[in-house]
Amino acid sequence: MPKVTYVAIDGSRSTIDAVAGDSVMSTAVRNGVPGIVGECGGNMSCATCHVYVDDEFAARVGPPGDLEDAMLDLGVSDRRATSRLSCQIAISEELDGLIVATPEEQP
Hints:
5 strands; 5-stranded mixed beta sheet; globular; Ubiquitin-like (UB roll); alpha+beta; 3 helices; 107 residues
């Protein structure tokens, strides 16, 4: 079972057993991880699930698609090279140990 570690703005970490095929966002919301809201339910229309993917995993996660890229440009104030919408990251065995950090605030 793959694990995802969520790093809060204060540095605290929550490591969650995830289900392959679920999104990083749905796993966070289901487990009450602070800092990931997911208001739109994963429809890529709110950016309240913005995360920073750890550099070690950035290449495996890959870049955002065009629509996600546009949403990040419009909805995120502190966008970084590893910014992603967690609703668009599907958990897989290849991503076991994935680390994502939540921003100081969501849109």
